[in-house]
Amino acid sequence: MDWSYIFAVMVTSAFGLQAIVFGLAAIGINVQFGYTGLLNFGQAAFMAVGGYAVAVTVVELNMSFWWGVVFGLIGAVILALLLGVPTLRLRADYLAIVTIAAAEIIRLILRSVTFKDFFGGSDGKQAFADGFFAMNFLPPDADLRIGPAVVNESQLFTYIVGWSLVALACLVVWLLVRSPWGRVVKGIREDEDAVRSLGKNVFVYKMQALVLGGLFGALAGFITAVGAQNVNPDSFKTDATFFAYAILILGGAARVFGPVLGTVIFWALFQGTDVFLRQAIDAGVPIVSLMDGTQAAVLRVMLVGLGLMLLMIYRPQGILGDRRELALDAR
Amino acid sequence: MPDNASTPAAMSRHEEAMRILADVPREPGVPKPDPILVADHVTRSFGGLKAVDVSHVEIQRGSITALVGPNGAGKTTFFNLLTGFDTPDTGSWLFNGKDLAGVPSYRVARMGMVRTFQLTKALSKMTVIDNMRLGATHQVGERMLQALLGLWRGQEKTVTAQADELLARFKLLEKREDFAGSLSGGQRKLLEMARSLMTDPTMVMLDEPMAGVNPALTQSLLEHIKGLREQGMTVLFVEHDMDVVRDISDWVIVMAQGSVIAEGPPGEVMRNEAVISAYLGGHHDKALTDSGVSFTEEASGT
């Protein structure tokens, strides 16, 4: 058992690409679900819109990376409007049903054979991130070493941009939720009729929250696309949405730093468990070594599910949350 | 505003309203001298059941009007229709001369007609003061961009001062920082009423303000409702308790099976044959008024 390796993996995962991507996605869900009470089960679709916008703009339209970002943000707004207009006047569960279905529709279109020339089918798109890495100001040998793990300068640049976006997103959320705007959406989360009776246009607020959360989802899509230098329809499965929910609930919904803390802990544990189990198998630890590496990878997903259940039972407000203002029971 | 100072003035407002309404004929749908709200042919069906079928009704400005009737008479449905929380099948109604039919509920509130709910909607996961602040209309900080830029701090002070003033009047100031969920049922009713006043309304619609309130608080709640009339607001409220109705209302509108069946001052309406038979099924000939008998029924399901 190489403990220093396990530790290094946990640290790099805690602050690595996945942590950034799912942190941003969870911040978006925090705006929608945590503060406003909107059950968006289609965050993966917003991530896909962001990621594919960059990839397709660069590869198929021969336009710059920045146009990809612009199209991605516009795409996320349009998607939010499309999802919100028919459902936000109805009860909250309709939004949940529509978003989860829409996310799957989008993923299946992206991976379909019909649009293979444009979206790349199940292979996805590659070789579009040059414009992003051209901005890399780090010297070529600026590697970061954490024990046995090495973070090269491209990864480091991606992480710096990614965590800056996380910080920016947190700032936006922080400014909004302490303002009268935040008061209105928290009121909507609890009882929208009460808010309506006080002269607030509830529909507009819900739409704003849905759009803003979707934009954060698109940011997550950008980062995963450039960080992996690859977009693939299967990285935007519903699992992605539920990982983001797990992260949000772990860290604490309706807390500005809940998603950030959640993503750091989640990925450290998630990847840490994987290496730990593999090492334990290699070391021939009894019982554990009955599995092979593939099974161990599945087991950790089960452990995530178990962890989520335990969390919901014993600490539904998450690490940072306040049980008194918990919205998990609301609609 | 101290209660003892406001009492003589409230009496005079009450007397003034009584005087104006004295010459109004006691019949359903009668025109009033100065109506703030005029409703025509308002109907609403749920499946085969015609829940509301009001051909004409007017509410006198500056008065306290009670809307009474047995369970299932359509009072709350009528309330929901008037305030835009439900859409009627037919009908139109004018509030302050403006057509309100089809106007969404939030805009009704902005136009000065604010409502409370039968099941109190105090936002229990917010503090009392935040509940109050939420009520203020035209807040710049409720717009997303201005909220981001922090352009709301000045107005927030004004709003908070206004909220504190109302909390003091409703004797909730010491609960200011508590979560609204920790208040008693009666205090929540008070909070909801105070919060609705933050919208600066001209007409206040109270759906069963006394339901679930302990007797000790009833009197204070009644004084507050009288205080609204004192400030020149018009009050329309749904109530089951006839003692309450007799105590504070200037005019009573009786609904049964969706329609207005009688109108008049509280004392007279309770002697009305149609009213007694609507409440008691038409088999009782005993007068209800001077015995203190209350019409109180189960407060739910109206």
Q: How many β strands of chain A by DSSP?
A: 4
Measured between the Cα atoms of the first and last residue of chain A, the distance is: 47 Å
Shape of chain A: globular
Count up the helices of chain B. 11
User: What's the β-strand tally of chain B?
Assistant: 10
The stretches of 5 or more residues of chain A where confidence is low (pLDDT under 50) are: 327-331
Shape of chain B: globular
Overall tally of structural domains of chain B: 2
Separation, N- and C-terminal Cα atoms of chain B: 34 Å
Please identify the top-level CATH class of chain A: Mainly Alpha
Average pLDDT reading of chain A: 92
Query: At the third CATH level, what is the topology name of chain A?
Result: ABC transporter involved in vitamin B12 uptake, BtuC
Q: Mind telling me the CATH class of the largest domain in chain B?
A: Alpha Beta
Strand proportion of chain A: under 5%
Structural class of chain A: mainly alpha
Order of helices and strands of chain A: HHHHHHEHEEHHHHEHHH
Low-confidence runs of chain B:
1-6, 289-302
**Spatial sequence of strands, sheet with the most strands of chain B:** 6-7-8-3-9-10
For the record, what is the CATH homologous superfamily label of the largest domain in chain B?
Answer: P-loop containing nucleotide triphosphate hydrolases
Biggest chain pair interface: A-B, 29 and 40 residues
Helix content of chain A: 55-70%
